[in-house]
Amino acid sequence: MFHGAITAIITPFRGGRLDVPALKKLVEFQIRNGISGIVPCGTTGESATLSFEEHEKVIQVVIDAARGRVPVIAGTGSNNTKEAVVLTRYAKKAGADAALVITPYYNKPTQKGLVAHFKAIADEVDIPVILYNVPGRTGVNMTADTVARLSETKNIVGVKEASGNLSQICDILRATPRTFCVLSGDDALYFPMLALGSKGVISVVSNVAPREMADLYDAFVSGRIATAREIHYRLWPLMQALFIETNPIPVKTAVAMMGMIKEEFRLPLCEMSDVNRKALAKVLSVLKIA
Question: Which of 160, 199, 217, 252 is catalytic?
Answer without folding.
Answer: 160
